[in-house]
User: What shape does this take?
Amino acid sequence: MGSLDPIARLLAGLELHLPSHRMMRGSDFTMRTVLMAAALAAITTTGLPIRSACAQAQPLPTSAQISNQNPAGGENKLTPSVATSNISESSAAQFESSPILSLPEIFARQWMPRTESVPTDTFSLLEDDQSHKVTLKETIFLALRNNPGLGSVALDPVAATESVTGANAVFDPQISSQLDVQKQANAVSSPFQNPGSDAIVQKLYDWNFGLSKVLSYTNGTLGLTFNNDRELTNTAFSPVNPVYTPTIVMSLSQPLLQSFGWNFATINVRLAESAQRASQLNYASSINDFVQRIGNDYWGVVQADANLKVQQAALLFNNDLVRVNRANVRMGMLAKVNLTEALSAAATALANVRAAQAAVDSADTTLRQDVAYNPQDALIAQHLEPAQEPDVNPTEEGSGQAALKKMLQSSPALAGMRESIRSALIQVQYAENQTLPQLNLGMQFGFTNEAGNSKCTATISVPSTANCFDPTGPTVPPGANNAAELPFSGGYGSALNKMFDFAFYDYAAVLGFSMPLDNAAPEAALAQAQISLNQTRLQYRQALYQGALQVKSAFDDLVAYQQQVEATAEATSYAQESLHDVRLEFREGTATTNQLLQYQSNLVAAQNNEVLAQVGLENGRLALWHAEGTLLDHFNINFQVRNPHQTPWYSRF
Assistant: This one.
């Protein structure tokens, strides 16, 4: 493993791989260029190198270097496993924080001086000149793992997953607490109000706690409060001082018409889940588009390289013709115009080579930047040299009807629009519910108790409930009681214990009804939701028609490209044979330089047409698979829509 180049180590160490496919069985894509006679073969060409600025291309290792020898004894091939591009459940974990443990750190950051500086772009290299030979599948693999644009799109389903979490959070129980202390000192307004003091002083302590939760079955709100009061005063007329008053109140607020129905409480969760599924399907559609783009980039480089070879061969031919004609003119065997024609053709061929070289550089840069394989952190990524040639064998894609059926079953774009229809249906369901009147049921039950320092309190007469003796009270026979003491003696614990005797309680039940007379706003919202649903359905129908058009066009183009490949191959063969015959006539003096150049130009045109047809056939396959929605399957890219349903404990009741 130590001898593997960087791409090989990446392929060997990652789970995401692209397997071999029948497209790798490329026919020998040999450009049938003009071969000069033995006397001309030794002439040094002035053709330009394809990549003069690049290092030697390094082929990817065989499967023997990565795993084991081919059991069939044939040539070793890189056979990676299936590529997986699903959005896993843990994809959002890197962006989440612990609900409780992260609070101190977050709080500390709020008080740290920080500046939001714009990141600076620094690169260790401006251009990475290393080069690797890769097949189309390996190129797609590298692009899926490294392209930042696709990585950005991949975060959309992750963000949508957080929306599902947020929708479920409405059922997350809410806890609350309040601790407070209050003190008041007011002047007395009567000499009898608080004898012995000119002020009435009161001090209150409260420690209250609450819990509330929205019910996931009924959409009602269940509440529980636990309030505690301690009151201390200096007035002599307070029979219990200090006094502790704990109170527990349970409440339920339940809608009965509007915002109530079967599974209505979780309607926002279902909307978020539908949006998350649509986001996954949109991501699959983006991968579908991206793989086709990478394929087009790959075959664009192959086409540019082949065209450059054709132009270089033409330049070689014209340079040799200049040499021959110059010698013949010097010996008086040809007129000078023959040399001028050859020089003009050679200059044109050189210009064509320059243009073809520029096209190669442009196609190469496009592929490099789209794949973005950049282990050296360069501004322009590494070279990727295509190691695969177009497969000119006839493609068995079935019939156009079969292609249309595949589109209906497999197109991620259509599946995403169907999910949008589901979301629109849920929106209509919500809007219909909101047209109902509001009929809400409220119920409450509470119980309390008191305890504290209960005093023996006397009045001007002996109360009938006298149970204690106060020396300052009315005169009574010895041993008799002349005052009353409330039965609330004890501390805070005593108040809590006696509270569950339910001696002191209250309850309430409320049934409320409200409805606008014309109900205009909810009816308008329902109409808008239904319009949106119809629009989505029509858009889906339009997408179906456009998809069928794309499939039909791609299928017809693929058939045409297959025919073009055969026709252009014959045309190239005939052009070669014709040029060979004219070249013999030229040597014998029965053909002119102009005729020779014309036949050579015909061969160059035929070769370029053959290149266009062969590359067009590969791009035609990609276009058909893309339109069908089977492009990912053909490259064994495993994409399955994950069910975004979440069941946190608080959303189960």
Observations:
- Confidence is low (pLDDT under 50) at residues 1-81.
- Residues 6-36+48-106+135-146+268-428+523-651 form a domain with the Outer membrane efflux proteins (OEP) fold (CATH 1.20.1600.10).
- The longest strand covers residues 199-214.
- The first helix runs from residue 6 to 13.
